Amino acid sequence: MHSVVLADDHPLLLRGLQDILSTAADFNVVGVAVSGADAVSLIRDLQPDIAVLDVAMPRMGGLDVLRALQSQRLRLKSIFLTATMSGPQIAEAMALGVCGILLKEYAPEALLDCMRQVGKGEKWLPDDLVAKATAMPQVAIFKKFGLLTAREREIAALICGGLSNRTIAERLGASEGTIGIHLHNIYRKLEITNRATLAALHVQYMAGHNG
């Protein structure tokens, strides 16, 4: 059975989510939060298997919650529930390691399927949302990644795995400054400015590469 924390600032939706999960023997709701701050506290205290987070809670939304928990080393699988997300938000969510993104309009029918897939260690990231993370066509992504050296591609993959420059430097036996220079060159060649966009592009590149 998977333990679950739910967070949404709309009481009616929160009640609906609880009702759906109460019908499933494989999930146990251990905590409910109506704000991002409450969600962070509950997740730290209860260490649930899965957190279902509303992206657009006031003051502290789902992305803020994941940022706040990054240093905690929790074995948390996170699912974002959203009415809509922008491309940069989706890119950042993927960079932060979100396991699932579910549009609220599909939640009544798809919530349990999404949670079961995430519970098994798989992703629930609809292709149209992943594509929205960057407007760059697949052909252009392949062309740009083709400009990277083997070491730059290796570093890009490690960054997308959530590793810091210092950790990457230790793993590759290089200095942190060297990794920073490589990262600068990766950004320049891909014409991007941050890790979140790199993560989104790398997911698409690997999907096409393995497809």
UniProtKB/TrEMBL annotation:
Keywords, ordered alphabetically: DNA-binding, Phosphoprotein, Transcription, Transcription regulation
SMART domains named in the record: HTH_LUXR, REC
The keyword Phosphoprotein is annotated on this UniProt entry: yes
Occurrences of domain HTH luxR-type (ranges): 141-206
Domain Response regulatory: 3-119
Modified residues (4-aspartylphosphate): D54
PROSITE patterns on file: HTH_LUXR_2, RESPONSE_REGULATORY
InterPro entries: CheY-like_superfamily, NreC/VraR/RcsB-like_REC, Sig_transdc_resp-reg_C-effctor, Sig_transdc_resp-reg_receiver, Tscrpt_reg_LuxR_C, WalR-like
PANTHER family (alphabetical): NITRATE_NITRITE RESPONSE REGULATOR PROTEIN NARP, TWO-COMPONENT RESPONSE REGULATOR
This protein's name: Response regulator transcription factor
Lineage: Bacteria, Pseudomonadati, Pseudomonadota, Alphaproteobacteria, Hyphomicrobiales
